[in-house]
Amino acid sequence: MKTKTVILMLSSAILISTGIASAQFYKSVDEQGNIVYSDTPTPGAEQLKPPPISTVDSLPKPEPSTDTEAKPGEETGEEAEKKPPTRYTKFSIVSPQNEATIWDNNGSVPVSLLLEPPLDTENGHSVWVYVDGKAFVRKSQSMVQPLSGIDRGAHKIRAEIRDEKRKTLKRTNNITVHMKRASAIPRGGP
Question: What pLDDT, on the 0 to 100 scale, is given for residue 68?
Answer without folding.
Answer: 56
